[in-house]
Design brief:
The chain folds into three domains: 237 residues, no CATH class; 77 residues, Alpha-Beta Plaits (2-Layer Sandwich), CATH 3.30.70; 59 residues, no CATH class. 33% of the residues lie in helices and 34% in strands. β19 and β20 form a beta hairpin. α1 packs parallel to α5 and α4 packs across α7.
């Protein structure tokens, strides 16, 4: 079974509200705090407390900023911080997707290149913490289908780094293009951080069919009289639908394939590969194959058409049989190296060392990559992460 997270944003959305709702639904605050500390060491502190919003109890996430003066941050700066954090690769990828989406929106709004965008509000420590906390919380839940409701944007005006802006703000409008929105309540009801999290990681739809497991409410700072200023999340289990998307390509420069495959994985594909084939008239070609969930299909299809020369795709429903998975970490010469393990029936079958972490540790220590890989494997085995060992309890 897989986990669906449905987000009720009919009263608005903000990063801290979504993080608070995930904590209220059962995500340990310590999981979020550890991830944020890895990206922003010593810069913030997370805490939660119960509040009332229009008579409903909800969890309010507070991000206490400890850094004295926030530095100017560009997209490359934030990507560097995340890359150096040692977080699980899937969390790093999710954070990168959110900031990449924010960067594209800001670049379009200001008419500059993405690399030149200076993040103001969303580059501050509290906004970075919100994004990292939510991505870490979703990873802890094992969420593979994130769905969100119609989004309340609000109306009026709000003060920002560039002065007073109309609500919905230009960023909010760009982030919700193609989405169903409303604008019933006064004030900024949806922040760029919250909208980027929804639109970069999820899809819009009604609450999908699932076996309901838990729910939670995250509170905003204000407590207006006319509505409950909360974000709700509903967690449930479902059997995911998997698709195999394929295309035959015979007119693409082979040097473009590595970047295309990487982009597909970043868009949400579970796997992507190419296979040599021979087409009609003896023409050599490649078959692109992409495995993805139904939830990721739209983003994956868009990426295929953007990154390759194909003009069509075929889609086939497939059944995926997967081992139970877990994640841990070991330390080699003071550097964190992630460990993935998989198994069933209470036993580990396979153990994999995160290669990006091996490469980073090797570069930092000057040791050959093969030595770092061997050392990480030995440490993992000594800690019980080896084939045949008992699968760790949750």
């Amino acid at each position: 079974m897989a986990t669906t997270v449905w987000v009720d944003a009919t009263a608005g959305i903000a990063g801290d509200m979504l993080a608070g709702a995930l904590v209220d639904a059962g995500v340990p605050l310590e999981v979020m705090a550890a991830a944020v500390e890895a990206v922003l060491p010593g810069a913030v502190r997370l805490r939660t407390h119960a509040v009332q919003r229009a008579g409903l109890q909800a969890t309010k996430l507070e991000v206490d900023v400890l850094e004295v003066q926030a530095p100017h941050r560009h997209l490359a700066d934030i990507r560097g911080m995340v890359a150096a954090s040692g977080l699980d690769a899937s969390v790093r990828m999710a954070v990168d997707r959110v900031f990449t989406r924010l960067g594209a929106v800001e670049a379009a709004a200001h008419g500059v290149a993405v690399e030149a965008v200076h993040f103001h509000e969303v580059g501050a420590a509290d906004s970075i913490a919100d994004i990292v906390a939510v991505c870490a919380g979703l990873h802890w839940l094992g969420a593979d289908d994130i769905v969100f409701s119609t989004v309340e944007l609000g109306h009026g005006s709000v003060r920002a780094a560039h002065g007073r802006l109309p609500v919905p703000t230009p960023a909010a409008l760009r982030l919700t293009e193609g989405c169903d929105v409303t604008s019933a309540h006064a004030g900024e009801m949806a922040t760029p951080t919250g909208l980027a999290l929804l639109t970069a990681l999820g899809r819009q739809d009604r609450m999908p069919a699932m076996r309901l497991r838990a729910s939670g409410m995250g509170a905003g700072s204000r407590d207006p009289a006319d509505h409950a200023n909360v974000v709700r999340v509903v967690l449930g289990d479902h059997a995911p639908r998997h698709l195999l998307l394929e295309a035959n390509v015979d007119d693409m420069d082979p040097r473009l394939w590595p970047a295309a495959l990487a982009s597909l994985l970043q868009a949400g594909a579970q796997d992507a590969w190419v296979t040599p084939i021979v087409m009609k008239k003896g023409r050599p070609a490649l078959t692109l194959s992409v495995l993805c969930t139904d939830a990721a299909r739209a983003a994956v299809e868009d990426t295929v058409f953007r990154e390759t020369t194909t003009i069509g795709l075929r889609a086939v429903d497939v059944e995926k049989v997967a081992l139970d998975r877990g994640f841990a970490a070991v330390t080699v010469d003071g550097h964190r190296v992630a460990v993935k393990y998989a198994g069933r029936h209470g036993r580990i079958y396979n153990v994999s060392i995160e290669w990006d972490d091996v490469a980073a540790a090797a570069k930092a220590t000057g040791r050959p990559q093969r030595e770092v890989l061997a050392a990480a494997t030995d440490v993992a085995a000594a800690a019980g992460f080896l084939a045949g060992a008992a699968f760790p309890a949750d």
